[in-house]
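Q: I'm building a small set of examples for a reading group on sequence design. Run inverse folding on the following structure and report the sequence directly after it, with nothing in between.
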């Protein structure tokens, strides 16, 4: 019982770290959306980025080079109206989750794209490109240069680029060997992560509902103390050493660059496999493992997202033809709108309900990928299963996922529209 209790406490700590990271990444997403939508120059850039989507269909009847309007490397606009609409809807829902719940909604994008019929590796590359486009357009690094530790950022990026290269290479190698097996790999990663997050999130929601009067709906508290792991790593002298946080602590703190590079490698590898940008992992690694202050982490994380997502989306996916540009733009526009609506809706929604929806949506993504696995494994020749059974399970997963997401999106919009007068006065 003691060992079981200790294991559960450790898992709970991991969950809390990931949730805190998710909240931090959602805050960056919200600030980025605000910067883009409040700046006319950035809106103009966004409009120019949409031109390929508008122009290519007009001249589609003309014989164009295969690289234009095709599914090959650098292809800007192979699309159908239905796929563009689907990407707008998926981006909108992800934005609503990010804005309303205050936690990253990017977890649902790759599973949602795969459910809409997009190959896993294409969904990953497209999601990474959408994150990169959002980061490069809305970055506020110039305002936070004082927060960025250049030495930490460089060491971390060395690791993340190496990790992205390894992850992207593995993803492509599996795809070239067997495209279905690539979908299996990506689905398995999401089943593990979303199952873990969703289970603990639902446990938290049910526990909090029992003492709702004591719950104020606040986000998890920020970590202010250095963890034991961080203190241990900082005590190890393994040159070259990196100094940081001089403004916060007398004499600053220092840590071996090799630990920073190692953390960067993990972030880059996971980002390249899942297509999530890596921001949700960077925060806990900086704060909990390396002992970097939240103040320095924010600026440095923005810096690494741009480079990691940019290199991954272009260097590991786009040049090999695994970025669906039209879908990426749909995700970008949808998420920008969704974040704004979701953030406003939080002013009229109780915090307990927000926690409940977060757990439900995460579990919906988990069930979606879990129910898709049998048919994928059967198609890859790993599992013996009647095709009709696999297709039925896959359909159940898709229906459950989109019903939950649509209900959530509809609920948020009704709260937004129904309280529009009150929101205008806020």
């Amino acid at each position: 019982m003691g060992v079981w209790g200790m294991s559960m406490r450790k898992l709970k700590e991991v969950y809390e770290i990931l949730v805190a990271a998710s909240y931090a990444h959602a805050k960056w997403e919200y600030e980025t959306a605000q910067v883009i939508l409040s700046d006319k120059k950035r809106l103009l850039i966004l409009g120019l980025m949409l031109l390929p989507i508008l122009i290519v269909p007009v001249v589609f009847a003309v014989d164009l080079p295969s690289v234009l309007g095709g599914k090959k490397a650098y292809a800007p606009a192979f699309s159908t109206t239905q796929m563009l609409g689907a990407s707008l809807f998926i981006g909108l829902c992800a934005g609503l989750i990010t804005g309303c719940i205050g936690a990253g909604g990017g977890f649902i994008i790759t599973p949602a794209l795969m459910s809409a019929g997009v190959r896993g590796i294409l969904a990953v590359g497209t999601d990474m490109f959408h994150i990169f486009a959002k980061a490069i357009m809305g970055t506020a690094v110039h305002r936070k240069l004082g927060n960025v530790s250049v030495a930490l950022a460089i060491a971390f990026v060395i690791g993340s680029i190496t990790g992205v290269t390894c992850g992207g290479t593995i993803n492509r190698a599996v795809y070239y060997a067997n495209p279905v097996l690539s979908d299996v790999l990506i689905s398995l990663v999401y089943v593990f992560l979303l199952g873990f997050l969703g289970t603990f999130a639902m446990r938290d929601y049910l526990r909090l509902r029992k003492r709702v009067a004591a719950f104020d709906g606040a986000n998890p508290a920020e970590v202010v103390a250095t963890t034991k792991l961080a203190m241990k790593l900082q005590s190890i002298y393994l040159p070259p050493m990196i100094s940081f946080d001089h403004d916060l602590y007398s004499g600053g703190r220092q840590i071996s660059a090799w630990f920073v590079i190692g953390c960067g490698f993990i972030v880059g590898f996971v980002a390249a496999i899942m297509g999530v940008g890596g921001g949700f992992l960077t925060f806990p690694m900086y704060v909990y493992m390396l002992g970097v202050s939240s103040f320095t982490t924010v600026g440095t994380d923005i810096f690494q997202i741009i480079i990691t997502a940019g290199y991954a989306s272009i260097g590991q996916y786009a040049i090999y033809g695994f970025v669906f540009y039209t879908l990426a733009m749909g995700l970008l526009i949808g998420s920008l709108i969704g974040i704004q609506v979701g953030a406003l809706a939080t002013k009229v929604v109780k915090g307990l309900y927000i926690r409940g929806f977060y757990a439900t949506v995460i579990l919906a993504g988990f069930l979606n990928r879990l129910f898709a696995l049998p048919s994928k494994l059967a198609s890859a020749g790993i599992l013996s299963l009647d095709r009709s059974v696999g297709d039925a399970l896959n359909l159940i997963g898709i229906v459950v996922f989109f019903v939950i997401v649509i209900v959530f999106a509809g609920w948020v919009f009704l709260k937004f529209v129904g309280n529009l007068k009150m929101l205008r006065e806020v």
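The chain has a mean pLDDT of 75.
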